[in-house]
Specification:
- By secondary structure, this protein is an alpha+beta fold.
- It has helices at residues 36-52, 102-109; strands spanning 26-33, 57-73, 83-98, 117-123.
- The chain has a domain at 43-123: Alpha-Beta Plaits (2-Layer Sandwich).
- Strands 2-3-1-4 form a 4-stranded antiparallel β-sheet, with helices on one face.
């Protein structure tokens, strides 16, 4: 007896289209912060600036959160088994700006973002 095998369609993944190499110059912006609310507010400023200057951009793409864990003894002498654990979470996002012009680059460098937000900008 032959049984029919039903193939399920692959799940549609939420993807961001990237421009092929050599097609358009890109400005890749990686933003890092300890608090995700401050990070999202600064990304909104960057996206508003890109929209104001009519520049095409992709993102923000959430990158994996980096978690650093530290274990510390509570006491220095007798109670060795009593320990505390602390962690730091670094939230990261990525934005690609396609075909940037000098006006958008100048506007992005003059942005005043909150403290605690680290920005890495690369021209690709």
């Amino acid at each position: 007896m032959a049984t029919a095998v039903k193939k399920s369609a692959p799940k549609a993944a939420k993807s961001v289209k990237m421009a092929p190499e050599g097609e358009l110059p890109r400005l890749r912006i990686r933003v890092k912060a300890y608090e995700h609310k401050i990070l999202d507010a600064s990304l909104k400023q960057i996206m508003d600036t890109a929209i104001r200057y009519d520049v095409q951009f992709y993102g923000p793409v959430p990158l994996p959160t980096e978690i650093k864990k530290y274990t510390v003894n509570r006491s220095a002498f007798i109670f060795k088994n009593a320990r505390e654990q602390f962690e730091m979470r670094v939230h990261k996002r990525l934005i690609d700006i396609l075909n940037p012009n000098p006006k958008i680059i100048e506007a992005l460098t003059n942005l005043s973002l909150p403290s605690g937000v680290n920005i890495d900008v690369k021209m690709m």
